[in-house]
Design goal:
Blueprint (H helix, E strand, L loop, with lengths): L6 E3 L2 E3 L3 E3 L8 H9 L5 E7 H16 L24 H13 L4 E6 L3 H13 L4 E5 L11 H18 L4 E5 L6 H10 L4 E4 L7 E3 L4 E3 L11 H10 L6 E4 L6 H10 L3 E4 L1 H6 L3 H15 L5 H4 L16 H10 L6
Helix pairs in contact: 4-5, 7-8, 8-10
């Protein structure tokens, strides 16, 4: 039996639901070609960080100013103008353009901004460079106790609405799990213009160096065990939120992909698994999904999608607190 693996994401028809998400692998054209050769149905480029652009420009400006009064030549073109340096989004936009010209699969740009103007400006530039869609990688860490939940959520909504109004390509919004009501904010984001929600943004948490007595960055790649959180919320949102659902974080195996499709995902995105195993890992994951569908007499991805979401599950409470209590009660270990 021939299984139809096609899925639709933000109106883009993809050959299958496994997509490499933003990572160092998708920031290099040669690796992007390897990912396409391994069967990637689309790619999400690494995020363009607005603060990184601003930092580069400020550093060049600082160096240009340093000693500028020491030499007469400095006031008459001794140093190039700031615009002559490789600052700004030019390198990223070139990657978007070259990827679009070299690949036959959809190319999704990604941006992480700090200001509304920056999100709009750079989002539009990415569209003009040829991206098929744009992913907003929203990363707000509210630390002011005077800023309310409603104010934080309004920042998201205003941002999405402003960026959407400036674009003609589809817009995905990558969110974190730290909302008091995920279904509510998801609904509001779709109302504000999100064509897809990416569940969830995997925030990298800092660590403390007890020897150097300083805060340090600490990166750990994901594992399949981290799939549980996005799995639960995908199952809850499916059918309630009228938009495409993509899931990232914890997607490593064909079994992970199948679970998320059963929960209601349109697309599953992986980064850590590809960083650990290389681009060819993607081919084996897709083959495993197809084999499972065939073995279980499914004709298509669409037939499978959402069949174990909360709305379709014979035990909807399994996705709520009842599941938490049942898990504790049924736990068996060496000391219990």
């Amino acid at each position: 039996m021939s299984v139809d693996l096609r899925t639709t994401y933000m109106g883009l028809e993809l050959a299958h639901p496994v997509v490499p998400s933003a990572s160092p692998l998708t920031g290099d054209l040669n690796t992007l070609k390897r990912l396409e050769d391994a069967g990637a149905s689309a790619v999400v480029l690494p995020s363009l960080f607005e603060e990184q652009i601003e930092h580069e420009e400020m550093e060049v400006a600082r160096l240009l100013d340093f000693g500028s009064e020491s030499f007469g030549e400095a006031t008459f073109g001794y140093f190039p103008e700031l615009a002559d340096y490789a600052t700004g989004p030019g390198t990223y936009l070139d990657l978007v353009s070259r990827a679009k010209g070299s690949l036959s699969i959809p190319v999704i740009g990604s941006i992480n901004g700090t200001s509304k103007g920056g999100w709009i400006k750079y989002g539009k530039l990415i569209e003009e460079a040829g991206a098929d869609a744009l992913e907003l990688n929203i990363y707000f860490i509210p630390t002011d106790p005077k800023v309310s939940t409603a104010q934080v959520e309004q920042q998201y909504l205003d941002l999405v609405m402003s960026v959407k109004q400036s674009l003609s390509i589809p817009l995905a919004v990558k969110i974190g799990p730290f909302f008091s009501s995920i279904p509510h904010i998801a609904h509001r984001l779709v109302e504000s213009g999100a064509d897809a929600l990416v569940i969830f943004n995997r925030f990298y948490q800092p660590d403390i160096d007890i020897d150097g007595l300083k805060v340090r960055p600490d990166l750990h790649l994901s594992t399949s065990s981290e799939l549980r959180l996005p799995l639960r919320w995908t199952a809850i949102l499916y059918g309630r939120i009228k938009t495409s659902l993509a899931v990232t974080t914890g997607v490593h195996t064909s079994e992970d992909v199948i679970k998320l499709l059963l929960a209601g995902a349109d697309v599953t995105m992986m980064a850590s698994a590809l960083l650990k195993n290389g681009p060819d890992h993607l081919r084996s994951v897709v083959a495993g999904v197809e084999r499972w569908l065939d073995d279980n007499d499914y004709e298509s991805i669409e037939q499978l999608k959402g069949s174990l979401s909360q709305a379709s599950s014979p035990d909807p409470g399994a996705f709520e607190r009842a599941n938490y209590m049942k898990t504790l009660v049924t736990y068996a270990g060496p000391f219990v």
